[in-house]
Amino acid sequence: MAPRTRDRLPSEPPPTVMEALRKRVTGQAVPALDVVFALRMTAQQLDNAITEWMADTAGTPARFQIMVLLWASGGGGVPHKEIVKTLEVTRATVSGLMASLERDGMVKSAVARDDRRNLIATLTSRGRTIVEKAIDSNVTSLRAALAPLSAKEQATLTSLLRRLRRGFLAARGKPAR
């Protein structure tokens, strides 16, 4: 088996594992396994590419998510607890990311006037410049990455992925979003 690198991920488990799995499962489970392996590898490749694209601008996809949320607020500020809710991560995760963004001069946080328990985050001018650069460069990269698919195929893929996400949520007993 070839060594695993960021750009060369295995498309599926080793042949011996796939053979054993195919003996164990039957019917619709066989193509379902193929879907899962293809989707996981594609998701990993996508994550690697986006992480690489962000390295020269926002730093990481998580930092970009916070910065673009603040950018989209139009300068009005976003409470830290709203960032936690929107990104569906822990307060500790947001606190660590915010500390890093503040240290790098991209965001600032201030105590809310009406409730001193709340912190309100805003982008700095440096942060705005960086997030806009990230958006522009990522749009260019996304266009290149999605060039093999027509607009109709992209819409179909998006619809299928949303249905698949709902199916996985339902299988876990979670409400669809």
Q: Keyphrases for this structure?
A:
three-stranded antiparallel beta sheet, mainly alpha, single chain, 3 strands, Arc Repressor Mutant, subunit A, 177 residues
Query: Into which percent range does the helicity of residues fall?
Result: 55-70%
CATH architecture of the domain at 61-132: Orthogonal Bundle
Q: How much strand?
A: 5-15%
Strand order of the largest sheet: 1-3-2
- The beta-strand count equals 3
First and last CA, distance: 39 Å
Average pLDDT works out at 89
CATH superfamily of the domain at 61-132, by name, is Winged helix-like DNA-binding domain superfamily/Winged helix DNA-binding domain
Number of helices: 7
* Bulk shape: elongated
Structural class: mainly alpha
Reading off the top of the CATH hierarchy, the class of the domain at 61-132 is best stated as Mainly Alpha
Largest sheet: 3 strands, antiparallel
Radius of gyration, whole Å: 20 Å
Order of helices and strands: HHHEHHEEHH
- CATH fold name of the domain at 61-132, please? Arc Repressor Mutant, subunit A
Contiguous runs where pLDDT drops below 50 for at least 5 residues = none
